[in-house]
Design goal:
Blueprint lengths: L15 H18 L3 E6 L2 H4 L8 E7 L5 H15 L9 E7 H5 L8 E4 L6 E4 L5 H10 L1 E4 L12 H21 L7 H20 L5 H11 L5 H9 L4 H4 L6 H18 L4
Parallel strand pairs: 2-3
Antiparallel strand pairs: 1-2, 1-6, 3-4, 4-5
Length: 272
Amino acid sequence: MGLAAATAMVRPTPYPELDSVLEELVASVRVALGEAFVGAYLQGSFAVGDFDRHSDVDFVIAVAQDLSDDEVNVLQGIHGRIFNLPSEWAQHLEGSYFPAGILRDHDQPAKQLWYLDHGSQSLVRSDHCNTLVVRSVVREHGVTLAGPSPATLVRPVPVDALRQEIRATIRDWGRQILEDPDRYRNRFYQGFIVLNYCRMMHDLVKGCPGSKRAGAAWAKTTLDPAWSALIDRAWGGRPNPAVAIHESADHTDFESTLQFVEYVIGETARHS
Protein backbone atom coordinates (compact mmCIF):
# COMPACT_ATOMS: atom_id res chain seq x y z
CA MET A 1 0.00 0.00 0.00
CA GLY A 2 1.18 3.57 -0.53
CA LEU A 3 1.70 6.21 2.09
CA ALA A 4 -1.52 8.05 1.24
CA ALA A 5 -3.53 4.82 1.33
CA ALA A 6 -2.55 3.83 4.86
CA THR A 7 -5.75 4.47 6.80
CA ALA A 8 -6.74 1.28 8.65
CA MET A 9 -4.72 1.69 11.86
CA VAL A 10 -6.33 3.36 14.86
CA ARG A 11 -4.45 6.63 15.17
CA PRO A 12 -1.62 6.08 17.68
CA THR A 13 -0.20 9.63 17.54
CA PRO A 14 -1.52 13.18 16.98
CA TYR A 15 0.35 13.35 13.65
CA PRO A 16 -1.56 11.81 10.71
CA GLU A 17 1.56 11.74 8.54
CA LEU A 18 3.46 9.77 11.17
CA ASP A 19 0.50 7.43 11.62
CA SER A 20 0.62 6.69 7.89
CA VAL A 21 4.32 5.88 8.07
CA LEU A 22 3.73 3.56 11.04
CA GLU A 23 0.86 1.81 9.32
CA GLU A 24 2.98 1.26 6.23
CA LEU A 25 5.77 -0.16 8.38
CA VAL A 26 3.56 -2.49 10.41
CA ALA A 27 1.54 -3.72 7.43
CA SER A 28 4.72 -4.47 5.46
CA VAL A 29 6.40 -6.28 8.36
CA ARG A 30 3.28 -8.36 9.09
CA VAL A 31 3.17 -9.56 5.50
CA ALA A 32 6.91 -10.29 5.46
CA LEU A 33 6.96 -12.24 8.72
CA GLY A 34 3.59 -13.95 8.57
CA GLU A 35 2.97 -16.13 11.63
CA ALA A 36 6.34 -15.05 13.08
CA PHE A 37 4.91 -11.58 13.70
CA VAL A 38 3.68 -11.16 17.29
CA GLY A 39 3.07 -7.45 17.76
CA ALA A 40 4.31 -3.90 17.21
CA TYR A 41 4.46 -1.14 19.83
CA LEU A 42 5.62 2.41 20.32
CA GLN A 43 7.88 3.01 23.29
CA GLY A 44 10.03 6.00 24.28
CA SER A 45 8.56 9.49 24.34
CA PHE A 46 5.52 8.56 22.23
CA ALA A 47 4.63 5.96 24.86
CA VAL A 48 5.20 8.02 28.00
CA GLY A 49 3.31 10.93 26.42
CA ASP A 50 6.07 13.54 26.37
CA PHE A 51 6.82 14.00 22.68
CA ASP A 52 6.87 16.70 20.04
CA ARG A 53 7.67 17.03 16.33
CA HIS A 54 11.38 16.59 17.01
CA SER A 55 11.06 13.34 18.97
CA ASP A 56 12.50 10.02 17.85
CA VAL A 57 9.82 7.45 17.02
CA ASP A 58 10.91 4.48 19.12
CA PHE A 59 9.32 1.12 18.35
CA VAL A 60 9.55 -2.51 19.37
CA ILE A 61 8.41 -5.33 17.11
CA ALA A 62 7.93 -8.66 18.87
CA VAL A 63 8.59 -11.78 16.81
CA ALA A 64 8.11 -15.46 17.60
CA GLN A 65 11.79 -16.38 17.42
CA ASP A 66 15.14 -15.14 16.16
CA LEU A 67 14.84 -13.79 12.65
CA SER A 68 16.23 -15.97 9.88
CA ASP A 69 18.69 -14.60 7.32
CA ASP A 70 15.92 -14.59 4.70
CA GLU A 71 13.58 -12.66 7.01
CA VAL A 72 16.29 -10.10 7.77
CA ASN A 73 16.98 -9.62 4.06
CA VAL A 74 13.30 -8.92 3.40
CA LEU A 75 13.11 -6.53 6.34
CA GLN A 76 16.19 -4.66 5.10
CA GLY A 77 14.31 -3.96 1.89
CA ILE A 78 11.23 -2.82 3.79
CA HIS A 79 13.21 -0.39 5.95
CA GLY A 80 15.02 0.99 2.92
CA ARG A 81 11.68 1.66 1.25
CA ILE A 82 10.08 3.14 4.40
CA PHE A 83 13.07 5.46 4.87
CA ASN A 84 12.43 6.95 1.43
CA LEU A 85 8.74 7.63 1.92
CA PRO A 86 7.78 11.30 1.35
CA SER A 87 7.72 12.13 5.05
CA GLU A 88 10.40 13.37 7.44
CA TRP A 89 8.94 11.04 10.06
CA ALA A 90 10.20 8.10 8.01
CA GLN A 91 13.78 9.13 8.83
CA HIS A 92 13.05 9.35 12.59
CA LEU A 93 12.14 5.72 13.25
CA GLU A 94 14.26 3.79 15.74
CA GLY A 95 13.68 0.36 17.22
CA SER A 96 14.39 -3.33 17.53
CA TYR A 97 12.97 -6.74 16.70
CA PHE A 98 12.57 -8.70 19.95
CA PRO A 99 12.12 -12.47 20.00
CA ALA A 100 9.15 -12.93 22.34
CA GLY A 101 11.07 -15.04 24.86
CA ILE A 102 13.80 -12.43 25.24
CA LEU A 103 11.28 -9.60 25.54
CA ARG A 104 9.38 -11.49 28.26
CA ASP A 105 12.27 -12.80 30.37
CA HIS A 106 14.45 -9.82 31.25
CA ASP A 107 16.78 -11.91 33.39
CA GLN A 108 18.18 -13.77 30.38
CA PRO A 109 21.80 -13.09 29.35
CA ALA A 110 22.25 -9.96 27.24
CA LYS A 111 21.72 -10.55 23.53
CA GLN A 112 22.05 -8.35 20.48
CA LEU A 113 18.89 -7.78 18.47
CA TRP A 114 18.21 -6.59 14.94
CA TYR A 115 18.07 -2.82 15.42
CA LEU A 116 17.21 0.22 13.29
CA ASP A 117 19.14 3.27 14.44
CA HIS A 118 17.66 6.74 14.22
CA GLY A 119 18.36 8.15 10.76
CA SER A 120 19.30 4.76 9.32
CA GLN A 121 17.61 2.68 6.66
CA SER A 122 19.13 -0.71 7.48
CA LEU A 123 19.12 -3.10 10.42
CA VAL A 124 22.26 -3.93 12.41
CA ARG A 125 22.95 -6.11 15.42
CA SER A 126 22.83 -4.11 18.65
CA ASP A 127 21.86 -4.42 22.32
CA HIS A 128 20.60 -0.81 22.28
CA CYS A 129 16.97 -1.69 23.09
CA ASN A 130 17.62 -4.84 25.09
CA THR A 131 17.30 -3.08 28.44
CA LEU A 132 15.04 -3.10 31.46
CA VAL A 133 14.14 0.53 30.78
CA VAL A 134 12.74 -0.34 27.35
CA ARG A 135 10.87 -3.36 28.73
CA SER A 136 9.38 -1.28 31.52
CA VAL A 137 8.17 1.39 29.11
CA VAL A 138 6.73 -1.20 26.72
CA ARG A 139 4.91 -3.04 29.52
CA GLU A 140 3.58 -0.01 31.39
CA HIS A 141 3.09 2.54 28.62
CA GLY A 142 3.55 0.84 25.24
CA VAL A 143 1.23 2.05 22.47
CA THR A 144 -0.13 -0.94 20.59
CA LEU A 145 0.18 -0.66 16.82
CA ALA A 146 -0.73 -4.31 16.28
CA GLY A 147 -0.93 -7.42 18.45
CA PRO A 148 -1.89 -8.19 22.07
CA SER A 149 -1.54 -5.86 25.03
CA PRO A 150 2.17 -5.33 25.73
CA ALA A 151 1.55 -6.15 29.40
CA THR A 152 0.97 -9.76 28.31
CA LEU A 153 4.37 -9.93 26.60
CA VAL A 154 6.69 -8.47 29.27
CA ARG A 155 7.15 -9.55 32.87
CA PRO A 156 7.06 -6.78 35.49
CA VAL A 157 10.44 -5.11 35.97
CA PRO A 158 11.54 -4.82 39.62
CA VAL A 159 12.35 -1.24 40.63
CA ASP A 160 15.64 -2.23 42.25
CA ALA A 161 16.77 -3.97 39.06
CA LEU A 162 15.74 -0.96 37.00
CA ARG A 163 17.71 1.41 39.23
CA GLN A 164 20.73 -0.89 39.12
CA GLU A 165 20.70 -0.85 35.30
CA ILE A 166 20.32 2.94 35.13
CA ARG A 167 23.16 3.44 37.61
CA ALA A 168 25.41 1.12 35.57
CA THR A 169 24.56 2.95 32.33
CA ILE A 170 25.33 6.34 33.88
CA ARG A 171 28.70 5.01 35.03
CA ASP A 172 29.74 2.87 32.05
CA TRP A 173 28.61 5.21 29.27
CA GLY A 174 30.12 8.10 31.18
CA ARG A 175 33.49 6.35 31.25
CA GLN A 176 33.31 5.82 27.49
CA ILE A 177 32.49 9.49 26.91
CA LEU A 178 35.23 10.75 29.20
CA GLU A 179 37.86 8.35 27.85
CA ASP A 180 37.12 9.05 24.18
CA PRO A 181 35.41 12.46 24.00
CA ASP A 182 36.34 13.12 20.37
CA ARG A 183 33.92 10.38 19.32
CA TYR A 184 31.08 12.59 20.59
CA ARG A 185 32.44 16.01 19.69
CA ASN A 186 29.59 17.16 17.44
CA ARG A 187 26.54 19.30 18.02
CA PHE A 188 24.10 16.39 18.03
CA TYR A 189 25.90 14.28 20.61
CA GLN A 190 26.72 17.23 22.82
CA GLY A 191 23.04 17.98 23.42
CA PHE A 192 22.06 14.32 23.34
CA ILE A 193 24.45 13.51 26.18
CA VAL A 194 23.19 16.36 28.35
CA LEU A 195 19.53 15.43 27.91
CA ASN A 196 20.12 11.71 28.41
CA TYR A 197 22.05 12.28 31.62
CA CYS A 198 19.20 14.48 32.86
CA ARG A 199 16.72 11.75 31.98
CA MET A 200 18.76 8.93 33.54
CA MET A 201 19.28 10.83 36.78
CA HIS A 202 15.55 11.63 36.91
CA ASP A 203 14.65 7.98 36.29
CA LEU A 204 17.12 6.78 38.91
CA VAL A 205 15.62 9.01 41.58
CA LYS A 206 11.99 8.37 40.61
CA GLY A 207 12.43 4.65 40.04
CA CYS A 208 10.57 4.63 36.75
CA PRO A 209 11.38 5.55 33.14
CA GLY A 210 10.53 9.04 31.94
CA SER A 211 11.25 11.26 28.97
CA LYS A 212 14.03 13.65 28.03
CA ARG A 213 11.59 16.54 28.51
CA ALA A 214 10.65 15.40 32.02
CA GLY A 215 14.30 14.75 32.83
CA ALA A 216 15.40 18.17 31.65
CA ALA A 217 12.66 19.96 33.60
CA TRP A 218 13.42 17.92 36.72
CA ALA A 219 17.16 18.52 36.46
CA LYS A 220 16.71 22.27 36.16
CA THR A 221 14.72 22.38 39.40
CA THR A 222 16.60 19.69 41.34
CA LEU A 223 20.27 19.69 40.35
CA ASP A 224 22.76 22.53 40.75
CA PRO A 225 21.25 25.59 38.97
CA ALA A 226 24.62 26.19 37.32
CA TRP A 227 23.66 23.54 34.74
CA SER A 228 20.34 25.13 33.73
CA ALA A 229 21.63 27.18 30.79
CA LEU A 230 23.49 24.16 29.37
CA ILE A 231 20.30 22.08 29.64
CA ASP A 232 18.27 24.80 27.90
CA ARG A 233 20.75 24.99 25.02
CA ALA A 234 20.73 21.20 24.69
CA TRP A 235 16.93 21.20 24.46
CA GLY A 236 16.96 24.03 21.93
CA GLY A 237 19.42 22.12 19.75
CA ARG A 238 17.20 19.08 19.20
CA PRO A 239 15.80 19.94 15.73
CA ASN A 240 17.56 18.63 12.61
CA PRO A 241 19.72 15.88 14.17
CA ALA A 242 20.84 14.68 10.72
CA VAL A 243 22.48 18.09 10.22
CA ALA A 244 23.70 18.54 13.80
CA ILE A 245 25.67 15.30 13.80
CA HIS A 246 27.90 16.71 11.04
CA GLU A 247 28.52 20.03 12.80
CA SER A 248 31.21 20.68 15.40
CA ALA A 249 30.04 21.14 18.96
CA ASP A 250 30.52 24.49 20.63
CA HIS A 251 33.83 24.08 22.47
CA THR A 252 32.65 25.62 25.73
CA ASP A 253 29.39 23.67 25.78
CA PHE A 254 31.20 20.43 25.01
CA GLU A 255 33.67 20.89 27.85
CA SER A 256 30.75 21.73 30.14
CA THR A 257 29.00 18.58 28.96
CA LEU A 258 31.98 16.45 30.01
CA GLN A 259 31.89 18.16 33.41
CA PHE A 260 28.13 17.51 33.63
CA VAL A 261 28.70 13.80 32.98
CA GLU A 262 31.23 13.72 35.82
CA TYR A 263 28.81 15.60 38.07
CA VAL A 264 25.93 13.18 37.41
CA ILE A 265 28.17 10.16 37.98
CA GLY A 266 29.05 11.67 41.33
CA GLU A 267 25.39 12.33 42.15
CA THR A 268 24.53 8.63 41.67
CA ALA A 269 26.51 7.87 44.84
CA ARG A 270 23.77 9.64 46.81
CA HIS A 271 21.19 7.20 45.42
CA SER A 272 23.04 3.91 45.75
